[in-house]
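re: ur question from yesterday

yeah so i grabbed the chain u mentioned. its 482 aa long if i counted rite. heres the sequnce exactly as i have it in my notes:
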Amino acid sequence: MQSNIGLIGVGLMGENLSLNMESKGFSVSVYDIDKEKVKKFVNGRGSGKKITGTYSLEELKTSLELPRKIMMMVPAGKIVDETIELLLPHLSKGDILIDGGNTHFPDTNRRVKYLESKGFLFIGTGVSGGEEGALLGPSIMPGGSKAAWQHVKPIFQAIAAKVDDGVPCCDWIGEEGAGHFVKMVHNGIEYGDMQLIGETYHIMRNMLKMTPDEMHLVFKKWNEGELKSYLIEITSEILAFKDEDGSPLVDKILDTAGQKGTGKWTAITSLDLAVPLTLITESVYSRILSSMKDKRVTASKLFPGKRISFKENKKGFITDLGKALYAAKILSYTQGYELLKSAANEYKWNINYGGIALMWRGGCIIRSAFLGKIKEAFDKNPGLSNLLLDPFFTEKISATQNSLRKVVSTAVNNGIPVPALSSGLAYFDGYRSEFLPANLLQAQRDYFGAHQYERIDKPRGKFFHTNWTGRGGETASSVYSG
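ran it thru and got these structure tokens back, copy pasting raw so excuse formatting
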């Protein structure tokens, strides 16, 4: 009996996905360049299940039903290309390769074209939820060769997390690298959510002088309301967790954060597509700054800062903190969705924005009740240009913006860095401003570079140049991209 799907890469994610597939009634063949990993898995966690160990690519090939579906769970980058080249001699026309890693979407764009030119199909899919999600139900975001979707849809939707009475957190995203692009933006939003929570924790810890147990109770309460989410939930649990000596473990963890690159890709792509992804980008920079621990320790001795002075009502300020966190979360997702819309326009992808919010509601790291409101917004208005213009989000940001202002100003006055909270507020104030000082900036560009400008008393699209010094000529340079 041949297997329904093959999986290359028997790491923890690969193992868990295989077990998930098998538990939903699918048979799986597994392969890894490290044959001992395969043996250990099929004789251990995979023992007695419809999981077949294979020890060569030829053996993997012959174990699979047609069209062959082979999912690669290997590190992104060069290894994916090398694995594809090793597989090609063993494939038949119409076979499907699936990259389930955190791949940069331009690589998926390229691989789709390459594999299709040879008669094969290729899917690049984001898989979110970590090890637990892979085993119990992740969020899955596939894109690439549309003809492949009908063959993998039953498997992917069966193993995905479910919401709303069984709706799977998996659907077709779009062409080329659209699936990996959506996963990249998901990870960028994840960076933003984590940084916002971190800044809120920093304010509680250093300004309000709260203990981890006190903070635990606040986050636990927040998780029962409109802030309910996976990250708020685990933050509450982390703050309550004790080390072997009974003290809070969180206080013993070094304050340097790591990253794997998806947040950086999101920030760089926002610059390429001219989208103001300020909050997420600041979250990436904050991780980089955190890694400069030795330099920060030295600087802390040179610049001790002002003495923290908090004399307001503590309970009331914690309420403001929750509202500020919610406001900033709205602004972060607003920016993320702006990036999705810009990419869809640039790459001619047909993306269902409400469907993406549904896919993110279960299984993935950023899952939250909040995402249901985003789905509702795009269900009502598929052409919605900005989340802030939806009536629900207009009302919510109007009701919470004063709390965000209060929290940011109080933190700044006490020397607590809040780059994500403050950049979210700055984006909001910029977006809602009828006037911005770009007129002066454009005059400066015309002064030193003859880049021209538009006038408020003339039609848009008509450009002017001024001989500001009397020494220049009338020849103008290029116009700006506005």
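noticed a couple things. Strands lie at 5-8, 28-31, 51-53, 69-72, 96-99, 121-128, 139-144, 162-163, 167-168, 174-175. also The two ends are 61 Å apart (CA to CA).
anyway ttyl
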